[in-house]
Amino acid sequence: MFVREFRHAPAVVWAALTDPGQLDQWAPFTAVRDLGSVGETTLTMVDGAERTDVPAVVRRAEAPAVLEYSWGDDLLRWELEETTGGTRLILRHTLAHPGMEAMVAAGWHLCAEVLRRLLDGRPVGVIRGADAMDHGFEELREAYAKVLAV
């Protein structure tokens, strides 16, 4: 479980999780359609010039509270809770193949920081794939490996 606090209303965070234009500014993938409705879609992993299409199915889209979709064989569940200061975002990323927990946590850590800056009006640009190595990815992965004892 990955938890982050944002100083923005759930509707603002929801839009960042579902709108393809916003996803392209912070997420590890692009989306061919808005994720705010159930049904099949494609999420495209981006690593420099390399693009990999991954099938996805939006299973739940209850704006602005719960978004759940498959990403290949993995399952992502985003929950948004309104707080006095904005929104608590809870991500549960269920891996189909264990062993990558620390790497996935480090990746989402970087993405969440890029999202925070984007929502705060201080965008730094998307950090994906090999570019993450220049932004502390390896140190984060090692720290999460210790915390997760993997």
Annotation keywords:
7-stranded antiparallel sheet; Activator of Hsp90 ATPase homologue 1/2-like C-terminal domain-containing protein; alpha+beta
Characterization of the model:
With 150 residues, the protein is α+β, with helices and mostly antiparallel strands. The protein has one domain (2-145): Alpha-D-Glucose-1,6-Bisphosphate, Chain A, domain 4, CATH 3.30.530. The protein contains four helices and seven strands, in the order βααββββββαα. Strands 1-7-6-5-4-3-2 form a seven-stranded antiparallel β-sheet. A hairpin with a 2-residue loop joins β3 and β4. α3 packs across α4.
C-alpha Rg (nearest Å) = 15 Å
Mean pLDDT: 96
Label the structural class: alpha+beta
Q: What fraction strand?
A: 35-45%
- The CATH homologous superfamily name equals START domain
Task: Assign a percent range to the helix content.
Answer: 25-40%
Helical element count? Answer: 4
Largest beta sheet, briefly? 7 strands, antiparallel
3D shape: globular
CATH architecture: 2-Layer Sandwich
Which stretches of 5+ consecutive residues score pLDDT under 50?
Answer: none
Query: What is the helix/strand order?
Result: EHHEEEEEEHH
Strand order of the largest sheet: 1-7-6-5-4-3-2
Give the termini distance in whole angstroms: 15 Å
Under CATH at level 1, the class stands as Alpha Beta
CATH T-level topology: Alpha-D-Glucose-1,6-Bisphosphate, Chain A, domain 4
By DSSP, the count of extended strands is 7
Number of domains as seen in the coordinates = 1
InterPro entries: ASHA1/2-like_C, START-like_dom_sf
Pfam families: AHSA1
Protein name: Activator of Hsp90 ATPase homologue 1/2-like C-terminal domain-containing protein
Family: Belongs to the AHA1 family.
